[in-house]
Amino acid sequence: MRNVIILSLVMVVGVLSAAEVTFTNGGGDNDWHNPANWSGGAVPCVRDNVTIPEGYDCQVTGGHGFAQTNSFTNNGNLTLPNGGDVTACGGDLTNNGSINIGSGGDDGSFNTYFNFINNGSIEGGSSVTINVEGTLNNNGSIHAGYGSSGEGGNILCNAGFLNNQGTIQGGDAIATAQDGGRVDVNTFGDFNNDGTIVGGNGSTDGNGGIVHIKMRNMRNTGGVSSGYSDGGWRASLFPVAADVYFIGDSICIDTGDSSLDGGTFHIRGRKLIFQNIDIYAGLTGENAIEIYTIAGGSADFSGTHTNSALFAVAGGIDIYSDDVIAPTEGMDYICSPSPTIHASDASIIDGNISAWNEFEFAGNSGNVKVFMQNLSTSAKVMYYDISSSKGWLTATSGSTPSHAPFEFDSVLAGFTIPPSTADSIIDTVTAILSIEPSFTETTSCIIHCMGDSAAVYVLDNNSLPSCLTVQAFPNPFNSSISITTPADAMIEIYDITGSRVWGIGSITVNDAASPYTLNPIPCSFIWQPDETIASGLYLVRATTEDGSTVTKRIFYIR
Fold first, then answer.
1. Among the residues of 280-347, which ranges form H helices?
2. For 472-558, which CATH class?
3. Whole-prediction pTM value?
4. Residue 32, CB half-sphere, CA atoms under 13 Å: how many?
């Protein structure tokens, strides 16, 4: 059974204010659901910012439903013995302590519309899924456990931006003929790896865990290794590593004395820079190394490298690029064996699709966000088909315009949770991406009902009317975005620090630091950020004449 901690935000300015709630264990049983264990004598609700202090153990026990809070900071030890979800919709999710997830069939997920900062440890689970619409900063460790058949647990990270200075590791298999856990990383912006990413090890006659990293831009100064198999599917290379994939628009490999190791190491992009590989076999393919750039792209090896910095054990080193920039010492010096240079290959068809979990109250409507990326080596049209098992989501299908390699697109699929649906009921969404007949990829997410909103909190006369919505497309965007708001609303855009970056409407705002006047606007407009606006998560806030306010998260990727 799954336990769910839902840390959700009601974005109604001036209606609800978050209270600070601390775990005290006053009831003495370490149970999240015991009111006596919390300051104020009540289990946290939708209005609360929750903290588990250092030195405290808190356990989310089975059969007690789920908790709703605004934001969450764990400085102690949180245990999810039967798996569960930790979701922060109203602020950052921060782990400075330890989070332990039961293995053997239980999974854990961590979801936030803002940022997830992990300075501690996350351990266990048949799978660990992290959905972060802002930035995931991992300075600690994320290590999956094992599944019900003894297979290694998988890790999936979906993030707007990801900075890894810690460890992300798939789970090791514990039973014969089981595979190690794979690690999948999908970022819509920049991915910086200065830490370690490792696939789980397989057991005898099992496979090691694949590492698959798909991003917009990547700078890698850390170590990345697939999992190994103990005997594995190719005993002639005992033990055998699984494959590693780096796929994105711009990739810079500056590993220094760190190592990159996989079965076949695949690197694919538009602009590839191999800056510094300072150790022998610093980039190793146990089988082979395959490097691809698109037509017009480049593979730049002009950095500082040691002899045989790129090393293929059993096969060759193949470079498919129209512009290979060799180091002073020559390609034969840094590659072992000598590489084979080919023209760029436009025939590869590949893509990526991801969908985000949504949490909403019974009777309310919302949108599931589905992101797609063309990872082919030529321009492609992407086709999508989105549906749900219970039918809460309106089935949606269609196609995107033709997108150049590594470009993104997104789709909003509307849903409505039936009135009186009980809390913790979920509807599973399936999203299918097709690129020509030869490529299909499927992903899934959930729509999670948080029960009856009237039973959780009561809004005053400024409650949001059901028609007050903000829509934005495409989202993420990289040059301009179309925003639709209520007529004559006052529109402001803020960064995640709360600083206003843009505004238009018809009221004077008394901001002591920077007063400004807003003038009326139509329902739809185009925002084109100037050169001072950095990539990241932004909030669009619309305020109507009666004071009602609604917000929308948008992602800008330069």
1. 331-334
2. mainly beta
3. 0.82
4. 29
